[in-house]
Amino acid sequence: MLKLKEVSKVFGEVVVLDHVSLSVAKSGILGLAGASGSGKSTLLRCVQGFEKPDSGEIECNGRVCFIFQDFQLFPHMNVLQNLVYAPDLKADGSARQKNEEKALALLKSLGLGDKANSFPALLSGGQKQRAALARSLMIDPDIILCDEPTSGLDVMSIADVISLLREVRSRGVTMVIASHDLGFLTEISEKVILLKNGRIVVEIDPKQHDDPSKLLTQYY
Amino acid sequence: MSNFFSSFLLIGTGLALTLKLLFGCFIIGLSLGTLLAILKFCKICVHVIDLFVSFLRGTPLLLQLSLIYFSVPGIFGVQLSVLSAGIIAFGINSSAYIAEILRAGIESIPNGQFEAAISLGIPKNRMWRDIIMPQVVKNILPALINEIVDLLKETALIATIGGMDIMRYSQIVGAAQFNYFAPLCIAAIYYYVLVSLITWISRLIERRTSYVKA
Ligand SMILES: Nc1ncnc2c1ncn2[C@@H]1O[C@H](COP(=O)(O)OP(=O)(O)O)[C@@H](O)[C@H]1O
Ligand SMILES: [Mg+2]
After folding, report:
1. Following CA atoms B102, B105, B111, B114 in sequence, which dihedral angle do they give, to the nearest 10 degrees?
2. Cβ atoms < 10 Å from Cβ of B125
3. Strands A55-60 and A174-178
4. Which of A167, B146, B160, B197 is the most exposed place for a label (fewest CB within 10 A)?
């Protein structure tokens, strides 16, 4: 579904990604672990095309959508408008009606049923997270890139995010999730890759280990 | 008292020119300012525009007005009316400030908003129209209102080339009565009320465009 071959990226003097190779199968979740500054966000940004790698290849089948650490909901639109704006650009009357129904159903399933008409400024962190996820699901992406989905969330909300992402995976969406939260990553991912100074230092299948977080910590 | 009242009405006839000037030069300033702000994204144009803008900001507005009113006929062979000379001079001058306001407004939008739009597959033109510009306009509204208020006060310079605005009428009435105090106070009241009106309207707009309102 998604394949990186020897991808490198340099900002000025700093080598941010150093010959990174990896692959993700369809409907899988790949976890990107690593300390702050290890290159997780840059890797995601390269996949989306926000940054151009200096060398290497990225192979990607299907539509990619990015979920930002700070969500980047459109502040001047209410939640429903945030969801339907992009799909409505390619739709006419009856298709727009369908988009709205789809958006409302999605919001309801994410527990945001009563927030359709609220503006993003009035949502909590967890609600914004869910709204951003709903907005990307509206364009039927094949791959979702998720940057630090648990940052700023309390433990309860993190548990919500986990069940939410599992539910998204069950729709057949492939995900790459960048996070410095090892407990969260090892719980949700089929495969966790640890980045350090832009290089992959270890790759594990969390289910094969008793305490995958502890294992990863040794490589931090 | 009836003397005061008739002065009040007479000076009020200058309102027509003042408002025509204000409206005209704001339209010119906004259009030209938008054009300048867009052209500043083009690498080659930047230096020319910067020079133009620094001239407009670095010389007195009165000089610019005189330049257009007194020297354009000599150069281009057309005599501009007082009103058009004022609209052109004040409009061009304010375009420099409006261009700066717009550019700062665009730069204040986080990069992530552009990237979110791209990630959702929103085409460039729709992104600018529906995602970026509405936020820019909301952000720059206070600065824009400020610029309108400045413009209103600057229109009083039209009196120096014989424009019959509020300012000029108050001077004429003052000269006729051998007493400038009351007429100038009346002019001040007109300007003050106009400024208050503009500020009040802007607050209304700001409240109506607030994101927080559900
Ligand atoms: N646009 C940029 N220009 C220069 N340096 C950058 C840029 N983006 C990221 N970096 C640098 O790249 C390194 C990795 O950043 P990032 O990918 O954000 O790491 P992470 O997401 O793992 O915290 C950091 O040292 C950061 O300062
Ligand atoms: Mg990051």
Report:
1. -60
2. 8
3. unpaired
4. B197
* Binary contact (A72, B115; C-beta < 8 A): yes
Contact criterion met (CB < 8 Å) for A74 and B131: yes
ipTM of the complex as predicted = 0.93
Ligand 1: residue whose CA is nearest its atom 8: A42
Give per-residue pLDDT as tens, B154-177. 999 999 999 999 999 999 999 999
The one-letter amino acid code at B156 reads A
| Collapsed DSSP state (helix, strand, coil) of residue A38 | coil
Cα of A102 vs centre of ligand 1, distance in Å, is 37
How far apart are alpha carbons B132 and B114 in whole angstroms? 8
CA distances from A207 to A4, A25, A174, A191, B141 (A): 24, 17, 19, 9, 55
Provide DSSP, B31-78.
HHHHHHHHHTTSTTHHHHHHHHHHHHHHS-HHHHHHIIIIIHHHHHS-
The ligand 1 atom at the shortest distance from the C-alpha of residue A147 is: 21
pTM, whole model, 2 decimals?
Answer: 0.89
How far apart CA B15 and CA A81 sit, in angstroms, is 44
From the list A160, A206, A211, the residue with the least C-alpha distance to A187 is A206
Half-sphere exposure of A166 (CA within 13 A, CB side): 11
User: Chain B window 55-74: which residues touch A at a Cβ cutoff of 8 Å?
Assistant: none
CA distance B114 to A74: 10
Residues 6+ apart with CB under 8 A from B59: none
CB within 8 Å of A49: residues ≥ 6 apart = A64
Compute the distance between CA of residue B203 and CA of residue A215 in angstroms, rounded to an integer: 58
Of all residues in chain B, the one with the smallest CA distance to A135 is B120
Q: What is the pairing mode between strands A2-11 and A14-24?
A: antiparallel
CA of A35 relative to ligand 2 center, distance in Å: 9
Report the distance separating Cα A191 and Cα A55, nearest Å. 25
CA separation for the pair B69, B76 (Å, rounded): 12
Point out the ligand nearest to the CA of residue A17: 1
What is the amino acid identity at position B40? K
What digits encode the pLDDT tens for the residues A101-140? 999 999 999 999 999 999 999 999 889 999 999 999 999 9
Kind of pairing between the strands at A29-34 and A64-67: unpaired
SS3 content of chain A, % helix, strand, coil (to 5): 40, 25, 35
Length of chain B: 214
Which helix (H) or strand (E) element contains residue A60?
strand A55-60
